[in-house]
Amino acid sequence: MLISKMAAEGGGKEMNEIKTQFTTREGVYKLLTHSEYSRPNRVPFNSQGSNPVKVSFVNVNDQSGNGDRICFNVGRELYFYIYKGVRKAADLSKPIDKRIYKGTQPTCHDFNTLSATAESVSLLVGFSAGQVQLIDPIKKETSKLFNEERLIDKTRVTCVKWVPGSENLFLVAHSSGNMYLYNVEHVCGTTAPHYQLLKQGENYTVHTCKSKSTRNPLLKWTVGEGALNEFAFSPDGKFLACVSQDGFLRVFNFDSVELHGTMKSYFGGLLCVCWSPDGKYIVTGGEDDLVTVWSFLDCRVIARGHGHKSWVSVVAFDPYTTSVEESDPVEFSGSDEDFQDQIHFGRDRANSTQSRLSKRNSTDSRPVSVTYRFGSVGQDTQLCLWDLTEDILFPHLPLSRTRTHTNVMNATSPPAGSGGTNTGSNGNNSITSTPGNSIPPQLPRSNSLPHSAVANANSKSSVMDSAIASGVSKFATLSLHDRKDRHHEKDHKRNHSMGHITSKSSDKLNLVTKTKMDPAKTLGTTLCPRMEDVPLLEPLICKKIAHERLTVLIFLEDCLVTACQEGFVCTWARPGKVGLLSSQNQANSPSGTVV
Amino acid sequence: MEILMTVSKIASICTMGANASALEKEIGPEQFPVNEHYFGLVNFGNTCYCNSVLQALYFCRPFREKVLAYKSQPRKKENLLTCLADLFHSIATQKKKVGVIPPKKFITRLRKENELFDNYMQQDAHEFLNYLLNTIADILQEEKKQEKQNGRLPNGNLDSENNNSQPEPTWVHEIFQGTLTNETRCLTCETVSSKDEDFLDLSVDVEQNTSITHCLRGFSNTETLCSEYKYYCEECRSKQEAHKRMKVKKLPMILALHLKRFKYMDQLHRYTKLSYRVVFPLELRLFNTSGDATNPERLYDLVAVVVHCGSGPNRGHYIAIVKSHDFWLLFDDDIVEKIDAQAIEEFYGLTSEISKTSESGYILFYQSRD
């Protein structure tokens, strides 16, 4: 134990140089120096006290096959370029659009992937003083400004995203801890909005905007305490994961504004969040220097990972390296030819993926062999890659037994009699099924079981459902498409709640009321298990790749993209993808390097 | 935020009175905590090292309460603790909520008692903190001893008479003292021996672009004792190679963390400042605890930070940022400002290696939530 630790440290000492390539089991990833995007003068940006550099991509479905566009902010500037990826060197002399702002700085941005064409894209930009701008960097237009008078929120925009499947709705989070749903078609009004309570939940509230004519914001969410640092929609667009400075992950059903589950960091704020491509897992990163893997179905922490030497600023799943054995691996890699789909799957496509997976799970009592790949970057200037393997996803008995000893609150622990014996037979044993493993066939009926907590939970949620349904129709902006989905959604949701009816719905209810908000008391509960009660992952690789803290990590089909606070956006070719550039690069290099 | 900054900047240019009322206005009469006083301390010539530590300690509530309780005890001969108690008492009993106080008596006493501080040079804030806490502990221990010898202590019976060998812990120890366990494993016979030592604060090495969590992990990294540093193993009865590591066995109520930002450069014959960016969260748990620690998962809240501004230990300036009733204040000698919690990130340090001057966290005070 000690010796292995020593060895690891020895490696750490030599790591002060900046890596330009690294090797994983799938091969060598190489930094493409000619594909570096930055401000045209390539001068490092003095980043002290500035907003993080962020990157957004869009594919405009250009016939030429060169449809990728990149947007990034550096300081008070915002750039929009053609992104040539691993194919060609970056040409920084010709940004398609460049904007310099005064008095307020861009903090984040998001393209609408549904409406993007070669002639027009809708880019939302959030600002440090709270405003949100809708611009078209191809037409070079500024179509709209939201929260212009800062009447809605005066604090920094921390995250802005289009609602998946919508061309009009978008969600904006602020460092005030509030989040607002806007419709691009509506105005913001000339007075501060009046709100009406729609939903009061455990440490969150949702208000509708009270006015005669429909105006922005449509909804105001107040989530937790302190800044809301990031949010992410589930791949099917139905759930919303939020991470806050109070250290909590909160997962909501977006349409019904119901809280699905909660997690607390080991300590400190949570800074970033992402979903696995199939929507089954959420990964967070935060001020405890850890990445934390949370099971959506079981609402519990299944692993933590330690590799970073400082706060984790971005986590992202790699949908192209994630694989499910015994099934068509193309399911993950092939369905995402549009790289932005890792953030926004189309609703229908994602549904099909998910249902296929869950169908297999429900018929096969034995877990399929699953490996998820995710990455993280942090303020330590390091990139870490992580594998989430079968033994972590479906822990075998020894681990669950230790868990029953140490974690008194954990209701997943089987009753005393059956504790040691459910190894192979859990297909029929709904009470003791391994968390996240299989949904036994008889479960649909368990909805009507006279289990009081379950019954309460269900009746409550259905009441809320109808309440929200009427609320939703008021702002009448959810497309027909969404309404059609409503039936589906019910089934979908019931499926999910079923996942934890067996394991912990009653437990969860107790916990929430008992533990309230004191983070010190969440330790040892499912909200925040002790360090020794969950597996601790080690990174596959952990490399220092920049001088400045890293702020971006995006997995594309041919490459991964990182960016640091100095304003350099780097492209790392995946194994075997590097030749594309070097062969073409001979001719192109002058334009790429001499600027 | 920008507006707030401008307001406070204007305020600092104005007279002290205007500054004080500006702070009061900024906090607002409804929000202003009852029985709380925010008083700047006059600088008596490079005494900001002292002012910043005193403010930080004043906002370590358990410490403040004990000092004020000491003040209410029968009058004693003047010493550094009575001077501190007078100063704290004078802040706590001000009619006004905000203002400025000259800590004259305390500074005079400090200069009288220790020649190190008896000049107008800039001193190291950590050295001062150490000196102050140890001096208070000594005073308290001496008083206890006196009381026992005078037979005034009712429970001064035989079984606690062995206090000559082991001084009794004082409230300074109750608040700040933790225990490190020093585990040494002989690489020949694998025997582990452990030795405990107490600490009032932990001095941790800093690295560029890391967190205080990482620096604390580094503090407990395993060292190999070899060649001239071999370890004498009792079991082997000879010098052997060994692995040594220090872990926290008893977690203190207030964890004071000193970031070792001043490094002696042999070539330059002087100290240079490491302005590294070391982030510190508002909430902290320790990873470097020993297996037999009693409360290894204690959750800490950041309550105060002594910030060093400038390029070296004996130059530059010290300020303190403290948390009081859910908001943050910046004490810069006689100036007191309310700051946004998000502004704390300005005190993490610098990522650029070129610039040596920075405003960076130097001593962190974390208070246990239980």
What does it look like?
The complex is a heterodimer of chains A (595) and B (370). Chain A is of the alpha+beta class and 595 residues long. Chain A is globular and about 60 Å long. Chain B has one domain: Cathepsin B, Chain A (Alpha-Beta Complex). Chain B has 370 residues and is an alpha+beta fold. In chain B, strand 3 and strand 4 (192-199) form a beta hairpin. In chain B, strands 5, 11, 15, 16, 17, 18, 19 and 20 form an 8-stranded mixed beta sheet that branches. Chain B has a 4-stranded antiparallel beta sheet with strand order 4-3-10-7, with no helix packed on it. At the A-B interface, helix 1 of A face strand 6 and strand 15 of B.
The largest pleated sheet of chain A is described as: 6 strands, antiparallel
* Oligomeric description of these chains: heterodimer
Q: Note the beta-strand portion of chain A.
A: 25-35%
Low-confidence stretches of chain B: 1-17
CATH architecture level-2 label of chain B = Alpha-Beta Complex
Compute the CA-based radius of gyration of chain B.
Answer: 22 Å
- CATH class category name of chain B: Alpha Beta
Total number of helices of chain A: 11
C-alpha Rg of chain A (nearest Å)? 24 Å
Strand content of chain B: 25-35%
What number is the mean pLDDT of chain B?
Answer: 88
Topology of this protein?
The complex is a heterodimer of chains A (595) and B (370).
Chain A: H1 2-13, E1 21-24, E2 27-31, E3 55-59, E4 68-74, E5 77-82, E6 97-100, E7 106-111, E8 123-127, E9 132-136, E10 141-146, E11 157-162, E12 169-174, E13 178-183, E14 195-201, E15 204-209, E16 219-223, E17 228-233, E18 239-244, E19 248-253, E20 258-264, E21 270-275, E22 281-286, E23 290-295, E24 300-306, E25 312-317, E26 323-324, H2 330-333, H3 347-363, E27 370-378, E28 382-388, H4 390-393, H5 397-406, H6 443-446, H7 452-475, H8 480-501, H9 505-515, H10 519-522, E29 536-537, E30 541-544, E31 550-555, E32 559-564, E33 569-573, H11 579-593
Chain B: H1 2-13, H2 16-27, E1 38-41, H3 48-58, H4 61-71, H5 80-92, E2 98-101, H6 104-113, H7 125-149, H8 171-176, E3 178-186, E4 192-199, E5 202-205, E6 210-211, H9 212-219, E7 223-225, E8 231-233, E9 238-240, E10 242-250, E11 254-260, E12 262-265, E13 270-273, E14 278-279, E15 283-284, E16 300-310, E17 317-324, E18 327-332, E19 335-339, E20 358-368
Parallel strand pairs in B: 1-2, 5-11, 6-14
Antiparallel strand pairs in B: 3-4, 3-10, 7-10, 8-9, 11-20, 12-13, 15-16, 16-17, 16-20, 17-18, 18-19
Helix pairs in contact in B: 1-2, 3-7, 4-5, 5-6
